[in-house]
Specification:
The protein has 338 residues and is α/β, with parallel strands linked by helices. The chain is built from twelve helices and twelve strands. 38% of the residues lie in helices and 14% in strands. Strands 3-4-5-6-9-10-11-12 form an eight-stranded parallel β-barrel, surrounded by four helices. The termini are far apart. The C terminus is likely disordered. Bound molecules: NADP nicotinamide-adenine-dinucleotide phosphate.
Length: 338
């Protein structure tokens, strides 16, 4: 089946499909559902699959991609696979081995995009979330510029076609962009971004620097009880989005995704349901008016669904832009709460 995707050019010349399929699932969801979901996504026309070492589903995602290559639906070169460097592998000598571990799990020779998942380093080792005897995270001190140089080597070695970052604020991006001897610019910054948190300032900064903004939580996140405040408003139930959706005879989900495409953002969309997956790829079939875009811009209310991530992007207190305490809040919020 021909791809229904459109593409956006990255600053290194490669193309990224303009809509991605997200593969993060909460721990209690069986991993086999991601295998099935990824196959459904490829069947529906998705060519961009977003994953990460820390999601612990790269084997299942890889099996899905391999099976769709084996049955002739796609070729490897049609697919765009993203993985991310976890925080316990920031030391420069650990970066390439970490990427090779992901490649082995997913069963590919190269990733299309490799991202620094967070601008923070954790103690190296097998533990994804290393803690001390008091249960506090053990932070490692690694200069982001040094991590970036190791990422550049992965690109030069052909293990990653493109390299970028995730959860970086402006100051952290500037650290990389202003690094003496910078060889490759980050092609993207993957961050939380949706109509309630439209990131217009960071988007403008990224555009000025030819960096693509990739949006996660573009549909209002999975509202995982562990880390999303359940009293926060449900994005897809927003009445204004609902009105615009009705006018276009589309769903609020499609409007939220289309909004990102039309402002030059590459949105990710996660779903394990066939109906939703097939619906989301229809984002290329309609257009919002400039008035719709303005109205949706007006929905911004500075609402992060994943407040745990907030501290990374907020105060720039140590050389990598975060404090140890803030990172404790972050990591416990995401991975350690019962
Ligand atoms: P999301 O894509 O914002 O939202 C996913 C939820 O939206 C689904 O669980 C689904 O809920 C609902 N949905 C999807 N399509 C729909 C449709 N057509 N109609 C109605 N509802 C629909 O969630 P996300 O997982 O937070 O973000 C997407 C991806 O971004 C992740 O999977 C991951 O790959 C990436 N991510 C990256 C980071 C990072 O730090 N870099 C952080 C978070 C996420 P129901 O199934 O209940 O309908």
């Amino acid at each position: 089946m021909a791809s229904k995707q459109q593409y956006v050019q990255l600053n290194d010349g490669h193309l990224i499909p303009a809509l991605g399929y997200g593969t993060y699932i909460p721990k209690e969801v069986p991993k086999s559902l991601v295998l099935e979901g990824t196959k459904l996504a490829i069947d529906a026309g998705f060519r961009h699959i977003d994953s990460a070492y820390v999601y612990q589903v790269e084997e299942e995602v890889g099996q899905a991609i391999q099976s769709k290559i084996a049955d002739g639906t796609v070729k490897r070169e049609d697919m765009f696979y993203t993985s991310k460097l976890w925080c316990n592998s920031h030391r420069p000598e650990l970066v390439e081995p970490a990427l090779k571990k992901s490649l082995k799990k997913v069963g590919l020779d190269y990733v299309d995009l490799y991202l620094i998942h967070y601008p923070i380093a954790l103690k190296p080792g097998e533990d994804l979330v290393p803690t001390d005897e008091h249960g506090k995270l053990i932070i490692d001190s690694v200069d982001l510029c040094v991590v970036w140089e190791a990422m550049e080597k992965c690109k030069d070695a052909g293990l990653a076609r493109s390299i970028g970052v995730s959860n970086f604020n402006r100051r952290q991006l500037e650290m990389i962009l202003n690094k003496p001897g910078l060889k490759h610019k980050p092609v993207c910054n993957q961050i939380e971004c949706h109509p309630y948190f439209n990131q217009s300032k960071l988007l403008n900064f990224c555009k000025t620097n030819d960096i693509i903004l990739v949006a996660y939580g573009a549909l209002g996140t999975q509202r995982d009880k562990q880390w999303v405040d359940q009293s926060s408003p449900v994005l897809l139930a927003d009445p204004v989005l609902g009105e615009i959706a009705k006018k276009h005879k589309r769903s609020p989900a499609l409007v939220a995704l289309r909004y990102q495409l039309q402002r030059g953002v590459v949105p990710l969309a996660q779903s394990l349901k066939e109906k939703e997956i097939r619906e989301n790829i229809q984002v290329f079939e309609f257009q919002l008016t400039s008035e719709d875009m303005k109205v949706i811009d007006g929905l911004d209310r500075n609402l992060r669904y994943l407040p745990a991530h907030q501290h990374i992007g907020a105060k720039a207190l140590n050389k990598n832009g975060v404090t140890t305490i803030q990172f404790h809040t972050l990591m416990f919020g995401i991975y350690c709460s019962a």
